[in-house]
Amino acid sequence: MSLYRDEGVVLRTQKLGEADRIITLLTRRTGKVRGVAKGVRRTMSRFGARLEPFSHVDLQLHGGRSLDVITQVETLHPYGEAIVADYPRYTAGTAMLETADRLTVGEKEPALRQFLLLVGGLRTLAQGGHEARLVLDAFFLRSLAVAGYAPALSECARCGAEAARAFAIVAGGVVCGACRPPGAAVPAAETIALMIALLRGDWAAADSSEPRHRTECSGLVAAYLQWHLEHGIRSLRHVEREWPGAGDAEPAPDPHVFRT
């Protein structure tokens, strides 16, 4: 495969040999790509600092059999500078990168909508205009929508009835009394309204929400996401420790309880 150029976000890195790294990126045109950055762990590396997680970069790669080789890198937006300087933003951003990695399973399969969503989420997180957990939950909900798993939030996920108050992960969102399965959660109406606002990008409504509804929303969204991924998001453990008041709300349902 010949040289090709793309822009991407660095999702993660891992050591290779004594001086190299394998860089996993989500790119605009190619999808998820793994490339070798040669010599980046040396002090005099030309572009080692540009290939850190959260970085939005323009790069040139040479196609290989299993791993491509990164030959040029230019920074487009150094989102990591603002994100790593603030712990809540850092933990939220790490969960965003891990989720994007999990949702784009195949390599070199175009995932433009997920790429644009990730870039927008990191930009919003770096700007610091909204609470980090709101940005994270908005990213989770929209990522699920892009993947085809958007939860039903306005009508019963099973019968379409409007009088739906319970939230059942296995059913796909809110459910009415007649369709409610055992173990379904019953969140506050304000919590469902917050989820709708985050999915739609209504930041005025999201920013004015109460902490207890944000906490309940975060628990439901995280459980719903992990049920569809069939795996836990490891970085969420650090996010949950950082947010004060998490123990004040009803515990979120365990995603494995609803596995069929």
From TrEMBL:
Keywords: DNA damage, DNA recombination, DNA repair
Coiled coil regions, renumbered to chain: none
Pfam families in the cross-refs: RecO_C (PF02565), RecO_N (PF11967)
Keyword DNA damage attributed: yes
GO cellular component: bacterial nucleoid
GO BP annotations listed: DNA recombination; double-strand break repair
DNA replication/recombination mediator RecO N-terminal domain: residues covered: 1-79
Top-rank taxon, per record: Bacteria
HAMAP family: RecO (MF_00201)
Family of the protein in this entry: Belongs to the RecO family.
Role summary: Involved in DNA repair and RecF pathway recombination.
Protein name as catalogued: DNA repair protein RecO
